[in-house]
Amino acid sequence: MTPIRKDLTRRVFMVCIGVFLLGFAISLLVYSALGSDPCTCMNLGISGRIGLTLGMWQLTLNAIILVFMFLFSRHLIGIGTVINMVCVGFLVDFFRGIWAAVLPAQPSWAVRIGFMLVAVVLVAFSAALYMAPKLGVSPYDGLAILFSEHLNVQFRWCRIVCDIIAVLIGWLCGSVVGVGTLLTAFCTGPLIKLFDEFITKKFLPAK
User: Fold this and answer.
1) What local confidence, expressed as pLDDT, does residue 22 receive?
2) In sequence order, what DSSP letters do the residues of 108-133 get, joined into one string?
3) CA distance 75 to 72
4) pLDDT at 205
5) Contact status, residue 136 vs residue 19, Cβ threshold 8 Å
6) Distance separating alpha carbons of residues 25 and 52, to the nearest angstrom
7) Which of 28, 45, 101, 115 lies 20 to 30 A from 184 at CA?
8) What does the CA dihedral 99, 101, 102, 103 come to, rounded to 10 degrees?
């Protein structure tokens, strides 16, 4: 295998692992019932209102956002974008089905809080992991990057604003908004930056 092909394989593998972990982490947030991440909060609320599964609605919304990414920041689109927009929602549905079958329907507060804290950190780490290879980002993550590039504002602040708007939409649509939602809304952007600087970049070959 040539060095270029080996590097591409490593990058695609990082994207796939990141997306898989993201779906897993979001499902833990939903199971904790203490509020999901802002994007899922919004999508759960809207999908519940219109009668679609989370996976189907999220795929539809991602396709709409992808149009704007193509018009204004098409360099953000890549194989990672496609993997994320197609897989995350369905992975969440898949893991939620597993938790419904094997875990208590009403877990203790200690379990709920533990799942929530693990999930918040894992959401940020998985996002940093799939974004680091620069093979494209999810449409939702792309919004914050798009605004950061065009408004010349730091990514972390753009991410926080996008997350707050998503939470408001989710709340208006009847989705659960809790401490987990607030933690991910305010912590995801800074944590992604932290993981990107100190961990995920180490998985890539030095330039």
Assistant:
1) 93
2) -HHHHHHHHHHHHHHHHHHHHHHHTT
3) 9
4) 61
5) no
6) 21
7) 101
8) 50
- Other C-beta atoms closer than 10 Å to the C-beta of 67 total 10
Question: What is the pTM for the complete model shown?
Answer: 0.84
- Taking residue 16's Cβ as centre, other Cβ atoms within 10 Å add up to 17
Question: Tell me: the pLDDT tens digits for 172-199?
Answer: 999 888 888 888 878 887 888 888 887 7
Whole-number Å distance between alpha carbons of 201 and 26: 23
Who has greater pLDDT, 112 or 73?
112
Q: Cα separations (Å) of 102 from 23, 51, 94, 98, 105?
A: 18, 26, 13, 6, 9
At 3 the pLDDT is 67
CB contact at 8 A, 29 and 37 = yes
Taking the C-alpha atoms of residue 67 and residue 80, their distance in angstroms, rounded to an integer, is 16
Q: How far is CA 14 from CA 51, 59, 132, in A?
A: 33, 21, 8
Average pLDDT of the chain to the nearest whole number: 87
